[in-house]
Amino acid sequence: xxxxxxxxxxxxxxxxxxxxxxxxxxxxxxxxxxxxxxxxxxxxxxxxxxxxxxxxxxxxxxxxxxxxxxxxxxxxxxxxxxxxxxxxxxxxxxxxxxxxxxxxxxxxxxxxxxxxxxxxxxxxxxxxxxxxxxxxxxxxxxxxxxxxxxxxxxxxxxxxxxxxxxxxxxxxxxxxxxxxxxxxxxxxxxxxxxxxxxxxxxxxxxxxxxxxxxxxxxxxxxxxxxxxxxxxxxxxxxxxxxxxxxxx
Length: 248
Fold this sequence. Notes:
Blueprint: H1 4-7, H2 10-17, H3 19-22, E1 29-39, E2 42-45, H4 74-86, E3 91-94, H5 101-110, E4 118-124, H6 129-139, E5 147-152, H7 167-182, H8 186-194, H9 202-205, H10 213-221, E6 227-236, E7 240-247
Parallel strand pairs: 1-4, 1-5, 2-3
Antiparallel strand pairs: 6-7
């Protein structure tokens, strides 16, 4: 979108555009764990040319004509399935699944040419933190093969309290998250994330866990590696503190 609404996201947009420059080389493929796909069995998309899923409402008409024409990869989907099942986790391939906006929105900014194979992975509907960390551990070998793994969510996600009214709530939760992710040992980081509900204003920041779980999967893929904050602002949509992280 253009105009005033887009201005709300200018810092986020800039940080996404800078991601390719942070990598040593262009990824061979990208795997996105999207907050907008919850399933009872972990599922990976296997469509060769995924359609768009416009899973939002009330936006301008042109946002329902957006396309991100990246190819899917059945080969990568099957590789992801094999890694996950090898770790003792049930996993299915969905041959019809398209890209939801948790995937096509950030990817259209990070890699606008849409010239990298792209596969999407669901989160589990039971929302267990330890499970999602284990899911990330299963995916870790992909990183050494040139696959970029992106956890797509939002570090504060309470749509009933969004903007200036949540300024202090989001800041205290974000301060805790910064400490847990970037300033703790690997073991401490895992323990704090498993018990994330003990964080200040945890349930006010995340009434449901869906937008936090992709972060836990990403942590699992690189649990013993250094993390850094590559995006942070304290006035998102008029008052929210939110952050994005890089691992390895």
